[in-house]
Fold this protein.
Amino acid sequence: MATLIKERRIVADSWHLLERGPKGELPEVPARGDVIVPLGLWLARREELLARAETGTLGAWIDANEGPEALAADVQRFPLIAVNFPKFGDGRGYSIARLLRERYSFKGELRAIGDVLHDHLFFMSQCGFDAFALREDQDPQEALSVFGTFSDGYQTSVLRPVPLFRRRLAAGKS
Amino acid sequence: MYLYDEIDQKLVDERVAQFRDQTRRFLAGKLSEDEFRALRLRNGLYIQRYAPMLRIAIPYGLLSTKQLRKLAQVTHQYDRGYGHFSTRQNLQLNWPKLERVPDILAELATVQMHAIQTSGNSFRNVTTDHFAGVAQDEIVDSFVWCEIIRQWSTFHPEFSYLPRKFKFAVNGAKSDRAAVAVHDIGLHAVKDEQGEVGFRVLVGGGLGRTPAIGFVIREFLPWRHLLTYIEAILRVYNRYGRRDNIHKARIKILVKERGPEKFREEVDAEWAHLKDGPATLVPEEVARIESRFTRPSYLRLPATDAGLEAALATERAFANWHKRNVHPHKKAGYAAVTLSLKKTGVPPGDVTVEQMEKIADLADRYSFGELRVSHEQNLIFADVQLAALHALWQEVKELGFATPNVGLLTNIICCPGGDFCSLANAKSIPVAEAIQQRFDDLDYLHDIGEIDLNISGCMNACGHHHVGHIGILGVDKNGEEWYQIEIGGNQGEIRPGRGASLGKVIGPSFARAEVPDVIEKLIGCYLARRDSEAERFIDVVHRVGAEPFKESVYGNADQRAAHRRGQLASA
């Protein structure tokens, strides 16, 4: 079982990630267990999977070139949504995460998967990820230290919805 | 100067600690070359042809003498005694040792400096008019807006891994001295009929291998919406900008592929969600930023100075310098002064440690302890008393920074080129030098009048050759260095009626030794055709077209055709 950082702790992971086949074909959904299905699979078989989703054992994952829009009406059906980072330098997942949290009010586990590295966790967490399936070679113990890299930030983010300038002004007034 | 508060300082200190840890892990073999590359680039550290290169941010080109002295000390201690001011208003050191870079950054942090996001696929240093805050044609003080954007863009969690680099310029005056049309986003301050400040927003401009003039995505964006609107633009770009091909990853390509109208619709759709949200600016924040800028305590002075007038009337060399290198100021009795870093024989933008220290002393004595770096790679003393100009001139002359060539042919913008840069196809500095030597007659230079000549050593266009009235581009032909010549480029609406334009190549390229001759022919062609001294080179190119200029260099169309036939026959 792969290690996972979740809510800033190292935990065991019960979820099984279903990937597309080499030619992009959709995988079969096993009858049992916690599974994360590709967005395309959810969209293709939504009707038949609705009952499974009710059991709380179905998650979905979004690739970097996909949009969270397709999942908009369904996000609350999932206890877990994952966003894939095909390469650590591919920053699309940061926008996808913010949209899921801020626009579609997703409250469940938001997990970064793929090329997820130590040095990227801080910004990922600011954008709303609370779970990180680190790439295998990464040291999870060491990675726990990065969440405190910066003590503040100027912008609005999922963790700090009020930008620094408003907080500075409020502090100045009190 | 904007003075950091505790939080600003803490973030910069935390960045130093973060990069120290990343460097340690790289040296310990825990980070791959590729992974470390992405991290070091966003701290300005390149691995160059001969050694690493560190690009230190000078936000919007504004520098205190305390900071300049620190730069001098760092250059002395960690480098080989000289630095290079770049067209992005930054300072580049060419020989630092990788393992010492965290120490350099720690030193810089003590004077509120850093190298944050000076490279990599990130939001880069915001640039602006080097006469911000003192220009007579000022609409707003662009430094204030640059600082607001600097803060917003620093460590933006969502936009830290953009498809490609992102360059942002702000112009706060009527004349565009910030070249806003050739940036990924350019802002041009405007006031509406009620006197409310807003910005004309341009998107998708840029130089490089696919040069483009930005399109106006919004004619008037009220200032309070600035951050939410650029957030919307960046989000559209971050999600849909191409990531499959590094040469097609800039926002200008996305704008082109979508079409400006479609792009605007997408931005507006995104903005609809962000508009009036918590990132909407408030007057108190603008006032807070404004109040953290130190301001010169100007004296009440008469608008003219008798001593200055007398010196101008009697000393021709001083008058020449005054004509080119002294600029009007919004406060009576003051002027802005350009220190030219374009002396013949010196790579444009280069300064030694000793020079940095002397410049700092001069700025303390003559200009309230501040200076600016211009994107033309000169230094500006923005607040000099008229009565002190003559004395300053004498001191600057001694330092070799009084070349009276600002705006003239020898004030060349030039990248470091093949002498330093691993990307370059050709050398650029020796070309600049050869042109400066050819045009060393000051009277002739003044007669030619205002002209921008820009040189890039490769198509990445760091020397802005596309927007030079004459642009020179180094190209590689079978391992040999050749130079392509463009005419008709213009960086922006510095004079009314002549907006930004891109140069067009005049024909086949030349060997390095031929370049000064070609420039001379182009200048000769211009002088023969201008209708008065007020009509500049660029104006003549746009009035008569490129043909007479091509003719002056390659012969007329028949001669060119005959030449081509001859080449084909002998091939």
